[in-house]
Amino acid sequence: MSALRDAMSHAVLGWVKPELDETLRLARAEVEFFAEDTADTSRMHFCAGYLHQVQGTLRMVELYAPAMVAEELELLARALQESTTSDRDEACGTLMRGTVLLPDYLERLQNGHRDIPIVLLPLLNDIRAARGAPGLSESVLFAPDLEQPLPQALPLPEVLPWQARQARVGDALEQFEQALSAWPEEGTPVNTVVLAESTRRLLDSVEHIATRRMLWVASSVADALRDGALPATAMLRQAYAGVGRAVRSSQQEGGAGATAPSQEPTRQLLYLVAQSATGHAALDELRTAFALDAEMPSEAELDHARGSVSGRNRALLDTVGAAVKEELLRIKDALDLHLRTGAEVSALQTQVNELGNVADTLGMLGLGVARGVVVQQRDSLREMVGGQRQAEVAAELGHGGFAPMQP
Fold first, then answer.
1. Do residues 283 and 319 share a domain?
2. Residue 262 shares a structural domain with residue 368
3. How many CB atoms sit inside 10 A of residue 303's CB?
């Protein structure tokens, strides 16, 4: 089912990819304009609007991890608009890098490769860090299909009057919460037997399908925890605390007609199962039911996916490279003219500023080595203009100081 869903998403992506590429190009243009004139915050307003369009389109085709990247980029653009970032230049560079790498990842999906959200985590956390937000954990990008049917062998809850059912659920929930309270946040639960028993009692008592699915997963994991097949981690305890809150909320809303609980505890529990290589009957059943093995990519798949977000967008760099080379040639011509005419050295201040703009462009694209070369040449020219170096520097700059840029 997951493979079919991925195939459909990728087919639709092929239809909307040209529009996404163009919208991201417009977003990049706004970043460039803003970098040249940071007082014009309207540029970030337009940039955020373009990124919001990208996010909506990606969610429409059910590519949720790339949509998260677009969402974080939009929030970063808003932060730049409101001047709430601690380092504006770094934030601009991160924003530009995100709009460059996102099309590369989408191109990989368009070519038929599977969506591997985990490789987007470093990019997501870099974007969040640029606006001062805390990083995300790997589990956030773990997204199995949670709409799986319950096992046919699972007994149905006993038919009881509503008040009697509420009382039974209340008793089981009290036992569950007592077991959880005896589980230190950084330690081993005191009695895993009681935890497993109370979780099973809850499963046997509730009627709501989504709540029963969550409790089936929780009960299976509790059995494995009781048998020593899973370690008692802080994340596991957090997941069970979420289970307790979800059941309590469902009980307060009342019966089978209650609102579906949050799927976060179920997803957290399944992530821990997917991360575990221990064999256990209950865990194996969950792995099969939710296709968890398919959710965990191989090393070869991870390496290929990482390559799509660590390389450079060739089309973009070809465009930027041509513009940068043209700018550098213009600066060289100005230096040559200066050497031939012997004009006032102060007239070269314009070229100092232009070199600074070229360095900023290269820095926003993450081309640190190329940026370093240009910064060095800019500083040399600035010292010459300020009278700190001899005019012979102009000859060095004008006759080979700038090598053609190779993206």
1. no
2. no
3. 11
Answer yes or no: do 9 and 123 share one domain.
yes
Contact status, residue 360 vs residue 383, Cβ threshold 8 Å: no
Consecutive 10-residue averages of pLDDT for the chain (407 residues): 53 84 94 90 96 94 90 96 92 91 86 79 92 86 81 78 81 92 80 92 86 92 93 90 88 57 85 88 91 69 65 57 77 79 75 81 68 81 74 49 45
CATH number of the domain encompassing residue 31: 1.20.120.160
Query: Is 0.85 surpassed by the pTM of this model?
Result: no
3 state SS of 213: helix
Our CA angle for 81, 91, 307, nearest 5°, is 130
Task: Give how far the C-alpha of residue 219 lies from the chain's centroid of Cα atoms, to the nearest Å.
Answer: 31
Residue 404 is assigned to a structural domain of this protein: no
327 lies in some domain: yes
Residue (of 69, 50, 51) closest to 109 by Cα position: 69
CA gyration radius, the chain: 29
Asked if the structure places residue 154 within a domain, the reply is: no
Q: How high is the pLDDT of residue 314?
A: 52
197 domain residue, yes or no: yes
Cβ-contact 229, 275 below 8 angstroms: no
Which residue range(s) make up the domain with 242? 162-290
Residue 389 is predicted with a pLDDT of 65
What crossing angle do the helices spanning 349-364 and 314-341 adopt, rounded to 10°? 170
